[in-house]
Amino acid sequence: MDAPLKELLKLEKLTEKAQGKTPSIDNSLDSLLQSLREAKDRINAGSITEDTYVHLAQTVEAKKKEIDEKQKEIYNGIARFGKALDKRFTQPLPTHEPLFTSERAQAALERTIALHFLRTGQFSTAETFIQECGIHIEAELQTQFQDLHRVVLALKRQDIGPALEWSLKNREFLRKRSSPLEFYLHRSQFIRLLLSGPLHAAPAISYANATLRSFYPEHATEFQRLLTSVLYLPKERLQRSPYADLASDSVHTDLEPLFAKEYCANLGMSRQVPLRVIGDIGGGGALARIEKARTVMKERKSEWSQTDELPIEIPLAPENRYHSIFACPVSKEQSTDKNPPMMMTCGHVISKDSLQKLCKSNGRVKCPYCPAESAQASAMQVHF
Amino acid sequence: MSATKLNADGILLLEQPFARVPYENYRKVFRATQRNIERELGNVQTVSNDLLKRSKSREVNLEDAAKSIDGMIGRVENLKRKLSELQDTAGKPTLDVTRERLQHLTAVEALQTTGSLDFSRWADTRLDRWLVDWALRAGREKTARKLAQDKNMETLVDIDLFTDIRRIEVALSRHSCTEALAWCSENKTALRKIKSTLEFELRLQEYIELARAQKKQEAMAYSQKHLASWQETHLPQIMQVSMLLAVEPSTKCGRYRRLYDNSRWANLIQAFRLAIYNLNSLPTEPLLNLALYSGLASLKLPSCCNDSRNADCPVCDPSINILAEEVPYSHHANSTIVCRISGKIMDEDNMPMAFPNGNVYSREALEDMAAKHSGMVTCPLTGNQCQFSELKKVFIS
């Protein structure tokens, strides 16, 4: 955006009071006013002559010209700015047939947006929106989000109480997921106590005694690190020690997304905010790629049945991989229910169709990737 | 948070309206300034030339001259005031908004990856901007204003523009063309450039309404004043509506019934919307929809639409799933398999391993399980158990 910004700056200077090649419009008008007033004075004094009128007409002409030139300067400045914008935005924004127009889709979209506001803690906006659209969000859901937000705000205020309360209530669930949440909550408090005052090891250690013991079996290494870090007080020394990471803020700030993740998982909700995930992918280059593919296909006059599958692959980051995708290495087609992935005795996997194609008349298949042969019947369907 | 490389051009594709709307606004201000200058100074020029002519032919009377000059002074002072007002209330603020928005875009261009907190904040703001844009287009003005206010981003969205659009559309839905015609007259040149026939359609509709009310004299006068100028290009239509004076609104005759039909108003609203969007470089679809479409298409898989739903997958969410119905499936030429237990990708470092029943999970997750249960592993889906050593390595490529 450097070029447009530069042109914009030039334009701003032009339109402010007294810059540019020609005098500012204000100045031109002032000088015209002066001439007019002088003429008026002459009339009142009775000393007006034809020359005055000539002079006046000339002044009007001249000032008008000045002003026109100034306007031209500004107009050129605007045009240059527009051109700089055109240069930066080389691709036009793609158009599309109206999307999500059915009532059902609209309702789904409204619900998604309402849940988004609730999820991100924008409760009053959510309320305004819910009222304005006349949709209904179950009270239970709203309370759940409000609870989540309450706990996260407490964590922000360095109060682990509500978060701890929730963790205790849902211990089984957290244990099944091997979640370190409870341990990390206590760890945060331990470190806070440790660094709260000059060489204040005693309260921290008694806290550790009371709460951290039970976590020893699962978090032995971290436990030992925490207790050894006591040797490195005060804070400045700790920051230079091998345990410097314990002194950083992330020990405390990471608790918020961790808690949100566990809380949402408990309710069967996604760990990331859905609209952000989709928006980041869509606005991060996917739209550009799809549009490019569309124009290329149009040029080649090839058909793309829009409702089927995208013609190109959009790369996804690892955290956006939620389902397994198996593309047969032989046919490059994605597996479906009718064409599932099959594993041969050597351990290599290809799609069922490819397996059948590679099958010889004696019912044996030669794996395309290793010298091993296996019986077609012994190939096992795998589920990812 | 991953460290995916930031695709600045991909991001900027959607930011065109963001940068262009204030630019178009400024051009409007410039045109208003120009009109004022031409009107007032043109007049002053005429008067001063006239004075000169009269003085040459010795027809000038001092009192009249004084009055003329007073008039001229009045006009110039008026112009000064108007220009100053335009600059303060419209000109400078618009340039300020332009600068702010360009700087907002520069900020994201400077980022290298999408993993930083800075990008996360920028993306949050972007989603909020899209939500405001969507809400304004959907007529949810209260929500839009509240969101813009709460997030302090009133300069990053175009509430006033959409409020104006809404005002005119509401008037049209109440069968009034006045507001739309006022807008047309303010934007005559631009409309002519895109060869828009909006003004003609509006005039035609007003004529039809006069005919409907049986105000024959007024209708004829109206036609003379406002339709005649379009004769060259639209004669057949003009002739058709002029027949309406002889036809009752309750007519069964197809051609005239269509002219009297109220659905023409819906078409007018649509035509107006397209014209004003065009003039302001606004996209016809809300940006949120475009982003959703491409985002959903990148993620949608057959597994999202059958029973194997994953709570983390946005497309599997019930409401979002309905939106995904309109979108094509994603395309993948290569395999990526994800462990159902840990959610991690299975590859050479974390090999997939198969149970005797064919279910596959990642080595790490299974090792973890085996360590806690003395070598036994259980398939989470079926409950089948076996020893870790009985698992088979799976090679997918």
TrEMBL record, chain A:
Recorded GO MF terms: ubiquitin protein ligase activity; zinc ion binding
Zn finger limits (RING-Gid-type): 328-370
UniProt key word Cytoplasm: yes
InterPro entries to which the protein is assigned, alphabetical: CTLH/CRA, CTLH_C, Fyv10_fam, LisH, Rmd5_dRing, ZF_RING_GID, Znf-RING_euk, Znf_RING/FYVE/PHD
Any GO CC annotation of this UniProt entry: GID complex
Protein species of origin: Rhizopogon vinicolor AM-OR11-026
Domain RING-Gid-type: 328-370
Pfam families in UniProt: CTLH (PF10607), zf-RING_UBOX (PF13445)
Name of this protein: GID complex catalytic subunit 2
Presence of the UniProt keyword Methyltransferase in the record: no
Location relative to the cell: Cytoplasm
Domain CTLH: 144-201
TrEMBL record, chain B:
Domain RING-Gid-type: 313-382
Any single Pfam family the record assigns to this protein: CTLH
Domain CTLH: 162-218
Xref: SUPFAM superfamilies: RING/U-box
Record keywords, A-Z: Coiled coil, Cytoplasm, Metal-binding, Zinc, Zinc-finger
InterPro entries to which the protein is assigned, alphabetical: CRA_dom, CTLH/CRA, CTLH_C, Fyv10_fam, ZF_RING_GID, Znf_RING/FYVE/PHD
Location in the cell: Cytoplasm
A GO CC term attached to the entry: GID complex
Keyword match Zinc: yes
UniProt keyword Coiled coil, yes or no: yes
Coiled coil: 62-89
GO BP terms: proteasome-mediated ubiquitin-dependent protein catabolic process
A single MF term (Gene Ontology): zinc ion binding
Zinc finger residue ranges, RING-Gid-type: 313-382
Gene3D superfamilies, A to Z: Zinc/RING finger domain, C3HC4 (zinc finger) (3.30.40.10)
Similarity comment: Belongs to the FYV10 family.
Name of the protein: Macrophage erythroblast attacher
Species annotation: Rhizopogon vinicolor AM-OR11-026
Lineage: Eukaryota, Fungi, Dikarya, Basidiomycota, Agaricomycotina
